[in-house]
Amino acid sequence: MYLSQQTLATLAKLMVGECPPGSNERFSPSRTLRQITEFFREFGERDLHPRSGAPSSLVYTKEKLEKFNGTDKMSLIICKALDFWCEDGFNPEHAAYRLNTDLRRDGYEVIIEERYLRMNGNTAETEPYFVVRSLQWAVVDVPSLVKLSEESIIEHIAKAKKKIDTGDSSGAITSAYTLVEEFLKQLLHKTATTFNENEGDIRALYKLLAEPLHLAPKNDSLESCLKAILEGLQREIGGLFEFANKAGDRHAGKYKPAARHARLAVNAAFTLCEFLLESFQHQRVHKQ
């Protein structure tokens, strides 16, 4: 998540409790250098400041925001910076509204959601929290998949989109993989194909499904150009398997994926499932 210098300046001022650029009004409580230092400890920073010669809280905040700019942690920093619901005299919603005037120019916005806490009699108790979402929709639409009755499929699609919106690249990749795994198993059930319910390797699941859907590249009735596409589909499955193992959050990730790579994985998963659904429906119609 990359922010412009104007947005970084506004965010820094809001974080230390100063008036943002172009405003004579404060939107947030003051934070000392010690408080800001503790704030960034949650994001892996371990700075110690001398008693004399230490930077101001604003200067230090700007330095840290520059360091995290362009990383997935930036969205988390924004949400935590606005989390001062219990502070008297300031409304986090007003601060979020002010930040959004700059943030939207960068293709993002802060929104409020409600987190379930507990039931109090017949009333559900919730608490508000902030989420950063992308305004740059770069995820393909999947109307056919959404029409499916299986709630698990719809849930996985929603999770993948939400994690893209909130900058959780590793989580989005994992959701994309889980969607493909669940979808392959759904179609294996529908085609009455025997498989191991505990199988988590999408390469093995796809190999089983390719036969009843006539998607195996070795099919002699297929044109050579179509065989090449289906071979590419197999490689795509293998690529998603390897990518999820290295960059997803199911296991200890071997490297941090970029947002564009997460979108690629999610789009690939959506397109793959859409194609498999159409192939299944085609085979079912021709059997009738």
From TrEMBL:
Domain Abortive infection protein-like C-terminal: 204-278
Domain of life where this protein originates: Bacteria
Listed InterPro entries: Abi-like_C
Taxon lineage: Bacteria, Pseudomonadati, Verrucomicrobiota, Methylacidimicrobium
Name of the featured protein: Abortive infection protein-like C-terminal domain-containing protein
Pfam families on file: Abi_C
Protein species of origin: Methylacidimicrobium tartarophylax
